[in-house]
Each structure stands twice: as C-alpha cells, then as structure tokens.
Write a structure and sequence with these properties.
alpha/beta, Rossmann fold, N-(1-d-carboxylethyl)-l-norvaline Dehydrogenase, domain 2, 2 domains, 8-stranded mixed beta sheet, 12 helices, 12 strands, globular, binds pantoate
Amino acid sequence: MNIVVLGAGAIGSLFGALLSKKNNVMLIGRAPHVNAIRKGSLKIEGKTQFNKKVPIMLSVNDIKNPPDLLIITVKSYDTEDALKKARKIIGSNTTILSFQNGLDNIDEIGKIVDRKQTIAGVTTHGSIFPEPGLIRHTGKGKTVFGELDGKKTERIKNIVNIFNEAGIETTISKNIVKEIWIKAIVNSSINPLTTIFQCKNGYLLENPILEKIVEKVCEESTNIANAEGLNLSFEDMFQKTREVIEDTSENYSSMLQSFKKGKKTEIESINGKIIDIGKIRGVDTLMNSILAYLVNFMAD
Ligand code: PAF
C-alpha cells in the first residue's frame, strides 16, 4: 500500500517506520528530523528497535501519485493548514486516517475533504521524540480504527490488516466517535494538570490533591460527553483514566512535552472543545475552564 504520513512526530514516525517494512511509506516532517534521517537513519529505541533510512520529505510537493492512505498525525491545531497543503495529493481513492488528540479533527478535515474519505483511529501507544532522527517507544498499547458511520467496510478491514501485519495490534471499533471522546476525557484529566505541575503522569495519583482534581475534571468532561449524546459511566471513565496514568506513569504527557519545547499545546482541541460543547449543552465547565485558563496563561 502507498502510505503518506503527514506529521512525522513521535507517533507518526513510529507507525510510519513499522508500516515501511511491508509498504511504500513517505514521511512528511520538519526540517531537523528530515535532515537527521537523510544524513543517517530513523532510529526507534525502547519497546521497538528499528534503524532504517525511511523516505522523508519536508512537504508533499514532490509526491507524484495520490497515496492509498494518508495518515494525519499533525497536532490538532495544524490539521486544517496541513491538509490544505496536502490537498494536491489527495485522490478520490485516498483514505484519510486521523490519528490525533482532540475533538475537532474530523470537522477540520471535513472542511477540505469529503467526510466519506475519512476514517479515524485512537491509540494508547506511548512514544516521545527526544531528538531529530530518534524516537523512543515508551509503552506498547492498543490501536482502534473505525469508519465514522461505524460500518465494517472492506477498506477498514484492509487498513486494520496492514497495521496488524506491521506489528501494530489494531482492531475495528463500531463507534470510533465514542473512542475519540473517551481519549479526550482521559487527556482532559491528565494533560493540563501534568503541564501545570510539570510532572510525570504517575505523580497525579501520588498526590492526593491532584488525584481529586483528576477525578473532578474526569466527572465534568464525562457529564459534557453525555450531554452530547454519549452514554458513558463516570466510574468507568475514572477507572480508565487511572489505568492510563498507571500504564504511563513514567511518561511526560504530550501537552507537557509541547509546553517544554515552547510549542503551542493542544489545550483548545481537548479541554477548549469540551468547554465549548459544555456551554452549548448548559453543563458546568468550571474544572475544564480553570485548567484551560492556567495552561494558556503559562504559555503566554
Ligand atoms: O497525550 C498524551 O500524552 C497521552 O495521550 C497520554 C495517554 C495522556 C499519555 O501521556
């Protein structure tokens, strides 16, 4: 399969590298990463060991034919811009796979590409980007994909097979929108707090006050999701959030990593979007508002 990965960050490079074993993969990344891989190779260390010169470019401009699969792993705030630039290589048979944090990506993609061409995925793999050319796979996780309408189509089966053949354990979800919400609720409860307190994920359960805040944010985000028509139990969501914190206790969240690098964070696509929906639905948004305010204040 011809695959382009738009956004060769930590997760894009990891999946791109694994998929490149059996597919034609082209990564699109930033200059330091592109230069490091071209001069040497793409190295993956940790749970996956990999060292190969994977094809990588700065932009899609030199790609001649539309890929079968365009994997979007850019930060959520870059989705629209990245897709506008990639539009020239999107053919009528190209499937767009969004693999991003946040609740606004599908709508952003829908501004540029027919929704029918889009599928979405959620992963619990942990990976970090210590330096250009090097990715550390910090935790093996699970990946789910789904058609936006929940159907088990041939294309989703095919793409799931390709991921499994690459060693990325993947299943099909009949409700990917729910999976995206679950991830957003977990992220809303973990990422801003770790950014404000500059701590590893695990510290959120070591400090009783922070644990209580996690619980309160998780409850509020779940209430907002349910007002939007999801049917999630707060107990399950809090249990899930605790499990993710335990499984990733040694990790720095993606939001804290962005903050430390002086980059924009995904606060608006995660807590910001939850606040927007809460306000429309008339549900309390205090906890999410406080966290979003503090993260934005720190970033200014
Ligand atoms: O965004 C992240 O960092 C991750 O989704 C998670 C699960 C919070 C682990 O760090």
